[in-house]
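Forum: Protein Structure Q&A
Topic: Joint prediction for protein chains with partners

I've read a bunch of threads here and the consensus seems to be that you should model interacting components together rather than docking separate models afterwards. I'd like to see that in practice. Below is the full input, 659 residues plus whatever partners are listed. Could one of the regulars post the assembled result?
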Amino acid sequence: MVQQVQKTKAIGTTLVDVKGLKVHFPVKGGLLGRTVGQVKAVDGVDLFVRRGETLGLVGESGCGKSTTGRAILQLIKPTAGTVKLDGVELTTASSNDIRRKRAEMQMVFQDPYSSLDPRYTIGQIISEPLENFKRGNAKEIQEEVANLMETVGLNPFYVNRFAHEFSGGQRQRIGIARALALHPSFVVADEPVSALDVSIQAQVLNLLQDLQGKFGLTYLFVAHNLSVVKHISDRVAVMYLGRVVELAKSESLYETPLHPYTQALLSAIPVPDPEVELRRKRIILEGDVPSPVNPPSGCNFHPRCWKAQAICREVIPPLEEKQSNHYAACHFPG
Amino acid sequence: MAANLLEVNNLKTYFYTRGGVVKAVDDVSFIMKPGQTLGVVGESGSGKSVTALSVMRLIATPPGKIAGGEILFNGENILDKSRDELTELRGSKISMIFQDPMTSLNPVFTVGYQIAETVKRHRKDVSNEQAWRRAVEMLDLVRIPDAKRRAKNYPHEFSGGMRQRVMIAIALACNPQLLIADEPTTALDVTIQAQVLELMKGLSQEFGTAVMMITHDLGVVAGTCQYVNVMYAGHIVESAPVKQIFQTPAHPYTVGLLQSIPRVDDARGARLTPIAGQPPDMVNIPQGCPYAARCPKVQARCRQERPELQLVGRGDQSAACFYPN
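Posted by a regular:
Agreed with the consensus. Here's the joint model:
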């Protein structure tokens, strides 16, 4: 039997709980290919996602946001830390158990060009998860594929076409249909609109919001575009060099950012309004993001921070609740 | 009139592919005054980069060809220039920086050498030593710390944002009159983008360089440009001073574009209004207005006749639309 659409569960209970997540990649070097260092892509991330909400995960390239998303889904084995989905620990689960859990947690990828197999028809792409998890006989699966295509705004008439016959926005819809095929509760969307043109971006963002309402989905929305993240997220986590530096409700994060990095990041976004642009004060950060192979001591933002004091160079500030439901990892927030 | 730095008249740049003729730029006209910053916005395939490459005469032939029109730079038609004359022009009077700073620098030469090379190419009377000094000076100008030492470094020793600064240093080394920047910050992170845009703005003001800023990001346009051309399917559909583009957009495409982008200073939850449908197939652009198929205000006339770019009665603002806002 094709599984019926899950009923929306109570919003507010924690669905995904991540504690102390670390992902370190070895750096090989020398003649013998020995490990000479570690890229600390994710270095102690704590976060939780509530049922039915969208948590935005933002940061610049190399901050570890995508790796965090993948490590939560166990697509990359975390080096340390725990990840609980609906109370079930994933990091210690057997590969069979994780495989079964995959039906509940899915992913939408950034690049709609490389994430769809060019030799498969759209029907084959969307039905593959249904067949893998034996959700019904051939006819039922066929019907379900047609349903899914309609749900994401594709004409089921095109079921036998190949991915290259579709535009970027349509391909992203195919990727979303595939992710939804097994009626997951949790979806990690990794930069789902950044490869699309602006007029198409809005179509896909609206679709994601509609689907969330319809199926009670919980999203982890990974993106570098802060305007897009603000638009879609209930809460937002800001990452810098492998750590979450600030986590708060969307409104309070954008209105009263507490961490200096968030403040600089927000001030750097160009606003499409010349009047606003004229009035705005920009915090221009000096220098570049340091290498995650050899991150700075203490607060890893201190070399670029205008508020840095001696303590910042020595002590790693923990992510603490500085205001109600507003967490920041900074010794001198505000 | 000699007051125009750049005057593009009825430019047509076509690509002859196996699938048919792609009219990437079709009958585009605009002017740039000395020192002006012009934004060219549009989605992928709208013809904004091809317009820039045509001005630089960098269209690969075949398959591409400038099929018609003229490009007057300081009153002289660039399309009539010989190869040698073009080489003389590029890098000294007109410079270009590209989107990808990783691939536009030569990995086997130091950045100092690459800047000095540009200077020596265009100034015969400059000695090696003077050219090197100029290179260091330029690196200092684009705020690369410790420029004297860094000039001896290779491109791979610089980060993305630093490499884009090196590109800007090369582009500005000969004090060009026109700098064409093709998505200069698209590959960079926002905090680095802010650094680079600030730098470009400062330098263009300091040296009076005119900048053609090609981008898909309306936010970048709002912050850096004085005048804007909006392109769609190979045509300029709207052309206006920056304030008017954002406050009183005239073409339905500009309106649609502004409504479809989420803004960081917006309240959350407001639903976006996307533009329906897809951009047209460039090989087979329907007759009439190229935007007709997606336009909410479309009338029978729009599907038959192509609207010309004309003033809409608000000063300098013009739109290619029969029913402008």
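The longest helix of chain A spans residues 198-215.
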